[in-house]
Each structure stands twice: as structure tokens, then as C-alpha cells.
Give the backbone structure.
Amino acid sequence: MLRWTLLLACIVFVEAGIFRLTIEEGTREVVHLKSFGFLGHPKSNCTIIIRGFKWLIKKDSAWVPSTGEPENPIGFALESRETINSARLEENVRYPPGQCFVDWKRDERLSITLPTVKKVQHKRFEWEIPNDVGPEKPLILDLSENIQPGFTSMFFYNCNPDTRFSFDVEVQQYNKDHGHAVYLDVGKQHLPLAYVIFGCVFFMAFIVWAVLLIRHSVHVHKIHYLMGLLVFLKFLSLVLEAGHLLVISIHGHGALYADVPYYTTLTIKGALLFFVILLVGTGWSFIKPFLTENEKKIVLVVVPLMLVDSVAVVIEDNLNEGNAAWATWRDIRRILDVIACCAVLLPVVWSIRNLREATAADGKAARSLVRLRQFRTFYALLVAYIYYTRIVVPLIKSALHWEETWIAPVSEELGTMLFYFTTGYKFRPMEDNPYLNLQQEDFDDVALRAEIEAAEMEMEQAASSTVVEKSKVAKV
């Protein structure tokens, strides 16, 4: 945890309205730097500070700054888009030979370019970057009067093949509300309040759960305390996320005093969520007081995966999209998340299989059948939760208009709340809950089954080692 906190302290927070990006010897034809929802002049501000800009050509196996004018346009462009996905896809477009990013007609384009032989044809306004721009002589451009209402994306483009580029640029973007700068774009301004409301709902759920644990203390298992802790951490993470966004809205970037508690709580909550799902799926403390070897292996795989996944979330959130590493960390996070989601389903499947076998035992069919139905319900609920949060919500996010981007995270929190509350209701501590009414014979049966499985594994290992030894002797 200490190493992870130190990693946070080393990250430069670039999210939201103020960011700075430095690229050395870049090779991409198009780079999406940032998208922001503006209210338009005079309620919006957009300032670009260029502290360095070099066009590089290859000379004697080295890339050196060129002193001549490029043949084709190279520079920055601000264009309107409807969604964030449409802006990100520009990096993957492959243009026909002889054509480039700025050859596509966009009358609203604001162009910032080096002096070139071939000019940008489709533009509303253009600024030229002087050749001597640098840290001591930066180029400061105030584009506020040219900003129109809408979702504006900033790109870098290089239409000169077999060349590279280096630049250092800082961008300040915000809207004005009663004279105060608001660095969250229009589609995200409602999120801090929404997270506070959801946090209050989860806090009330925590209070209700604590009352249930006190009133039904006789029927409380260890897993119930972990479930209560998870609900509390969910409440805390929502409140801290609201504070995280509020700080960005006021200052234009994150601050360690707000971001370190938020990301720390988010990491612990994410790992505990999958840990609790695994324990509920195995029936730990409900049906059996221990984990089998296979279940322990799943836990040892999933929990570290979620910790690494949380670190990937931190890095992805605080890297500018123009950084080539941003897409890498995004893909790493997605892969780890998919692996963890698939892994947590395995213990539930194993429990369903064991309960199905137990229904054939004399005198236990009715009780095992009830638990089997409970596990099937939990399995369906878990699959629906994973499908909704990992597939449906991203699809909703990609299709939303720029003014309605807040709907996606709110929809995700609604789905999460439904999953938490339904699971809590199904496995709440109470006297007449058939899932929790255990007898000593249940523990004995599960323990016996685990011993049999362990003995079978030992026999298989011994048999394989014998085969290996025989093969060695035969070779000799």
C-alpha cells in the first residue's frame, strides 16, 4: 500500500480543464489531445500555450529539427464532435495516398500550424507557429472568442510522411458560471452532486445493515461483517469521488489531498468487492467454514489482479489521452477486469455443481434444492451485473450526446446499487433464511468432500511423478 501511495504522489494530475503534454520524436499521423464541452463565447475560455514545437527529418540515421518549411500542413486543430468516441477514432483512420486529416472539409476548424508550402484549405480561423517558439519565448493563444457552443476536440496532425515531431503544449479550458471558472465540461458538471446522493443512499444502507446485524446477532456469519464493510467503503468512495471532481472543477486539475484518499479507497473497495463475491460464491461461513484448494487459488489470483487493475485505473485517469501509454494502460485495465470477472464466476459454478450432487443424498434433497436455487439466483444476478457494468454502460457512454455524458456513470451506479441491495437481501442474517440454516452434518459433508478431492489430487500427483521416474530409468 505504501508503494502504491508513493506512485500516486509521483503522478502529475492532468485530468479535466488544464493539461500539459510533451511528446518527443512522435510518429503518429493524428493525436487526439483532449475533448471538452463548451458553452461558447463569452461563457467559455480556451487558452493554448506552446512552449516548444519542432518538425524533425532524418539525417545520418538521426532525427534533427528541420530549418525549412514542411511541404504539407503540421500543427494543431480544434474541431467539433458529437461524442468522445468519434474523436478517439480519428487516430485509427487511414487516409488515401496524398490525403491527410485536414483535407476533410470542416468549416468550423480552428487551425494552429507551422508555415507550410501547402496550406490548410478548410478552416474558420488560423494561427501560425513561429519557428523560434520555445520555453523562453512561448506562443500564447487565446481562442475564447472563436469557441462555439458544443463538444470541441483538439488534435495534433502531421501530414508529412517519413517525418517526426516534438512539441510541448499546455491547454486551459473552462466554462464560466456566475463569474467563476468551472473546469469540468458541461456533460460532467452534475456528477459531484450525483455521487453525493448515491453516497448518502449507501450510507443509509450501511446503517440498515448494521441494525440487522445487531438484531439478528445469533444468525450473523463472518461474511456479513465483510459485506457491511464493503457497503461502507462504497459510500466512502462515492463521497471521495465527488470531492475529487469538485477539486478538479475549481482548480482545473487534481490535488494530492483529494486524490490519494479517493484512489486508495477505490483500490481497497474494488479488491474487497471481488473478494466478497468469491466468498459468497463459495458459500464460505454460510455452508462451510473453509475454502478448498481450488477456491484459495482463485482468491490468490483475483485479489492481486484487482490491485493491479486499480493501479491501471489511476494511471489511465491521470495520463493525457495524447500520451501513447494511455491506450496501453486502458487495454491492460480492460483485460485484467475481464479475467477477474470470469474468475469470480467459477466458485459459483462449482457450488451449484456440488449442490446439484447433494440433492440426490437421502434426507437432504429439499434443503439442498433450496440452496441450489439460491446459488442459481446469485449466479444470474452476478452475470447480469458484470454484463451491465462492463458491456452495457460503455455502450451507453459511447452513444451519449456530449451534454448527457453524466448519464453513463449514473446508470452504472444505479446498476451497482441494485446488485448490492439484492445480494444483501438474499443473504441477510435472519432466522428463516433457508440458505443460512446450517446443520453440523452439512459441514461434515463438505469437509469430507474436500478431503476426498485433496486425496484425489495427491494420488494424481504421485502417479505423474511415478511415470516421470520410470521414463528416466528407461532412458538410463
